[in-house]
Amino acid sequence: MCHWAWSASHCCCCWTVRQVCYLGPIFGSVLTGGMGQVPAETEKLAMARLQREVSRCQSEGAMREKLILELEEERRLRLESEKRLREVTHDSELGRAQMVSLQQQFSR
């Protein structure tokens, strides 16, 4: 007998609809029509699946957090680089304007 049911609940980290195993005397009897408990072996397998799923979600969450931090660092470096480029361009334009001014003074 299948003790799995689709649930509209979401995983804590990835917002996808998950298949949930209802264990225990109340939920188990609801799914089995009140005709007994979930077998111990089925419960162990369900718990192992649940533990793997939680572990996978935590791993995905950690990976997602690491990627976010890397992207933020890349953005910070890009903004610094763009700022430095603007400063160098401005300094270059000032130097060019001074050179043109000096050339005009000496040509008179």
UniProtKB/TrEMBL annotation:
Region forming the signal peptide: 1-28
Q: Which GO terms describe its cellular component?
A: microtubule plus-end
Does the keyword Ligase belong to this entry? Answer: no
The record's listing under InterPro entries reads: Nckap5l (IPR026163)
Q: Which GO BP terms sit in this record?
A: microtubule bundle formation; microtubule depolymerization
Q: Which keywords are on file for this protein?
A: Coiled coil, Signal
What is the name of this protein? Nck-associated protein 5
Residue spans making up a coiled coil are: 40-84
Q: Which organism is it from?
A: Takifugu flavidus
- For whether the record's keyword set contains Signal, the answer is yes
- Its domain of life? Eukaryota
